Amino acid sequence: MIRSAICGVGAALPERVVTNAELEKIVETSDEWIVQRTGIRQRYIAGERDTTVSLGAQAARRALDNAELSIKDIDCIILATSTADHTFPSSATEIQRALGMTLGFAFDIQAVCSGFVFALATADFYLRCKMAKRALVIGSETFSRILNWKDRTTCILFGDGAGAVVLEAIKGKGVIQDRGILASKLRSDGRHIEKLYVDGGPSTTQTTGHLRMEGPEVFKHAVAMITDVVNSCFNIAGIGPEKLDWFIPHQANKRIIDASAHKLGIIDKKVVITIGEHGNTSAASIPLALAVAVKDGRLKKGDLIMLEAMGGGFTWGAVLLRW
Ligand code: UT7
Question: In angstroms, what CA-CA distances link 39 with 68, 104, 228, 277?
Answer without folding.
Answer: 35, 41, 24, 9
